[in-house]
Amino acid sequence: MEWNDAILDLKNVGEQRAKKLNRLGIQTIGDLLEHYPRDYKDRSRMVTIADLSETEENTFVARVRGEGQSVRRGRLVMTKVQAYDETGEITLVWYNQPYMKTAFQPNESYLFTGKMQKKYGRMEIASPEYEIVGKSFAGGRIVPVYPLSEGLSQKILRGFLAEALHCVQGTLPEILPLWLRKKYHLAERNFAIQNIHFPVTETAFYDARRRLVFEELFLLQTALSCLRQEWLQQGAGILMQYQDTLQKIQESFPFPLTNAQKKVLQEIQNDMTSGKMMNRLVQGDVGSGKTAVAMAAAYWVIQNGYQVVMMAPTEVLAEQHAQSFQKMFAPLGIRVVSLFGSMKAKEKRAALAEIADGSAKMIVGTHAVIQTGVTYQKLGLVITDEQHRFGVRQRGMLAEKGENPHVLVMTATPIPRTLALILYGDLDISIIDELPPGRQKIDTLAVNSTYRPRIYTFLEKQAQSGRQSYVICPMIEENEKLEVENVLDYTEKLQKTIPNCRIACVHGKMKAVQKQEIMETFAAGETDILISTTVIEVGINVPNATVMLVENAERFGLAQLHQLRGRVGRGDEKSYCILVSDAKTKIAQQRMQTMTKTTDGFVISEMDLQLRGPGEFFGTKQHGLPELKIANLYRDMQLLKEAQDAASTLLAKDPTLQEPEHAGLRAQISTWFEGKNLEL
Ligand code: ADP
Ligand code: MG
Question: What domains, with CATH codes, occur in the chain?
């Protein structure tokens, strides 16, 4: 059996179970083998019945006496089975599972795991896990605990993994070269895969995990370094000239640029006058003034005689950028044109013509701006907002058109600096580490739902004094499975409660034009309260909005809450962020606390990293990096450093991975590049 074989080829996996496995992202044997346990239980210590403990889980082998007995107590059917070993006897109890009566072969030995209770001096275990001795994967050893989906149990998954491991035993090719494994003390691949699932000993587990985490991070680092090399080899970048144009654009802003903005602009100019191609990430907290930096850079490039494109992830955002650029650039005589997928054919034709003949200097839009059919007269700079990474594929599309522009990526997701430097191995990074002066601190309150009447009075007062509010609900419509607020019902409810306020809602299921209209009305101050899902999360800039009310705040991650809060506090008025939640879980409480304590995006992202589990790190997927299956960027920071070191050693030895010893690595990385995982 091979890594890429379909999961259906595995014994006992039929259409039904294959579907359930698919839901866990498992399509192939390899996917299954990479479905790593989320936890382990140490059941390697076996006890006898006489030694069963009441305080912890026990694993023991016992024989079953015979058929069990069921008794009904009201609505409850209790099924009891007797089991014994040479030291004693115990009663096994199941509730409402009458079939357990005949689930065992009399006098056969089984492995049981569960917590013992003494009742009237007799020993009892409720719903123990059980398995036939000899086939055991549930006990007598360290056992894996997997992430599950509906209809799949630990037992079933353990069985599948045991089977798959049995089939591939000893046949998985090693992709890490021997010198590397020796230098970094890494276990062999077959050993690692076996022992990450069913560790023979605790040490074996640590060795396995070290190897697999290292491999994942090492591949990532190597891939990013290859990308960077590729980028550097793209040849000469367009050479811009220093001109005294920055002064002019700075005068056009209604405010002086902050020192941080100036510093970043300088870095951008240095790049574009170096003769090399720029590939720079500008990281700045919400409200730090990235758009202003983008404008200044764009202006300068346009003065150099080139066109500039600004790409945003949604039409709403793109439209907003188009308007801000228009406001800034029109008085300077610069033609701004927007281009969206949803434009009417006639409008689109007109826009395309202006882009092609060069009369459009500043082009703003969604992905449509780099698609086939768009021809530029002379493209000098591509700016992407909240896109995190300008992909190889996207670059390829431009290259096909004969364009070779500089690239500037803007992101508001603050990543701890050390991590950012590692994750963005292929980008140069600028950080706007200073907010424009005069910003008022946003007051953040975490309350429970009993505060709603007071909150609504507050929203009404804000509206009366001419200010606006956002309300965020986690859902669009009612959902039977989840008792959380939804936009549609909430809008109705709120309108009834405060009928004097002008209330509107916007959500992801609306057509782009409709969303656009609602956002514009809100931006124009003609709506008091805007209720929405997180569609307004990124980038929206309405300085008159002073309240951000988040319902079911427990359902949002810290990074997301921070983004949402960043939508207010953009003007001169005092702003508020109100987080409503009735959740009592520790993680929810910690998040709320963090939010009320700090407004520093970097502190929040550190906290986010700590609170989230492995693989869930907010950055990776969002930043176009592959989802990490085993490494945890926070916990595994040390290994990440080693992996980075290893990647540079490797590439110094063999920059294009041509040596036979590195063929496996090259193959692995190129599958990533093919876009399966890595949106590069
Ligand atoms: P970001 O995109 O980083 O979230 P924006 O560029 O949208 O931030 O800027 C947020 C707000 O701050 C905007 O209203 C913008 O006009 C204003 N702003 C930007 N730079 C400055 C500055 N140097 N001084 C004062 N206000 C600024
Ligand atoms: Mg922005």
Answer: 7-38+166-209 (no CATH), 45-140 (2.40.50.140), 243-432 (3.40.50.300), 442-598 (3.40.50.300)
